[in-house]
Design a protein that fits this description.
Layout (H helix, E strand, L loop, with lengths): L16 H52 L23 E4 L21 E5 L19 E4 L4 E4 L4
Antiparallel strand pairs: 1-2, 2-3, 3-4
């Protein structure tokens, strides 16, 4: 005859209220660390995506120039009308070879950052002004030095 094992239950078999509270506190602290890090990661990914899209758009605009010997008046002229950045806002393009020359974006020395056209995303806050040093422009993703720099205005 086989005997069945007998289980003995002690009063310490479960978790106490203090142990549960400590575990919840640890989870809360880890969440406070992980959530901002994840948000920073998502924002960094959006900046990289915008930079890649701006680089491709800049190449498209340069190809248009090669074919037509002039820069397009708008993104619609190169089939990019309505193109949205990762923050779901339209990219900004400005042809600087004509009447818009005085509207060029400027660096900290107030020197235009491009010769022929400006192309940028207004970034996370959706705001921008002409000089890159302005607070509203710091999160813009820009095409600068005629394509030799593409990235955050704050790092330019």
């Amino acid at each position: 005859m086989t005997s069945t094992p007998h289980f003995r239950f002690s009063r310490h078999a479960g978790l106490t209220l203090i142990e549960i509270i400590i575990a919840m506190a640890i989870i809360a602290v880890l969440a406070q660390i992980a959530i901002p890090a994840y948000e920073d990661y998502k924002e960094s990914a959006k900046v990289k995506m915008a930079a890649q899209e701006i680089a491709a758009m800049g190449n498209t605009i340069e190809h248009y120039f090669d074919d037509n010997r002039e820069y397009p008046d708008s993104l619609a002229d190169v089939g990019l009308a309505g193109k949205l950045d990762p923050w779901e806002r339209p990219y900004v393009y400005l042809n600087l070879t004509g009447a818009n020359k005085g509207q060029a974006r400027k660096d900290h020395n107030l020197v235009p950052i491009n010769t022929y056209f400006d192309l940028y995303s207004t970034g996370k806050d959706g705001k921008s002004t002409g000089p890159l040093t302005a607070k509203a422009s710091r999160d813009d993703v820009i095409y600068a030095h005629d394509g030799r720099y593409i990235g955050l205005a704050s790092k330019f």
